[in-house]
Amino acid sequence: MYKRRRVLGTFLGVTLGTVLLPGISTVGDDPPWAVFTCGALFLIVNQLIHSYPSAIRTSPRGLILALAGVGVVQDTLLWLLASWLGSQLTYGIHVDGFLAALLGGLIARVTVLGCMAVGPQPAVAEHA
């Protein structure tokens, strides 16, 4: 269930970033599929480079802030990668600049962490 909320938060964050920010737009004739492919790129890379706390409500605040900072940088770079891929394929997402990518990364990461905080948390084994 926790992984499903992460997936939902990723797609919701990419959708919100695309809709809310004027510097991020879709390229091509079918905007929903362009957002979906960008969300799939985010999901694949975020699964390969796992920068999420194991249980967000019980993790130390310093760890959450550190992982959130790393996650914002990661998501900012993913927005720029998605924009570059969109320009090469003439389909996908276009990001106007670094500031738009940074704001998109912030929106995406906050949305994922917010979705992870809702509902029951996974059991975390204590390490001695």
Structural notes for this entry:
This protein is mostly helical and 128 residues long. It is 67% helix and 6% strand. It is built from four helices and two strands, in the order αβααβα. Helix 3 (61-89) packs across helix 4.
List descriptors:
single chain; 6% strand; 128 residues; two-stranded antiparallel ribbon; mainly alpha
Number of strand elements:
2
- Low-confidence segments: none
- One letter per element, helices H and strands E, the order comes to HEHHEH
Beta content comes to 5-15%
Mean pLDDT rating? 86
Q: What separation lies between the terminal Cα atoms?
A: 27 Å
Short recap of the structure:
The protein has helices spanning 2-20, 31-48, 61-89, 98-117; strands at residues 24-27, 92-95. With 128 residues, it is mainly α.
Topology:
Layout: H1 2-20, E1 24-27, H2 31-48, H3 61-89, E2 92-95, H4 98-117
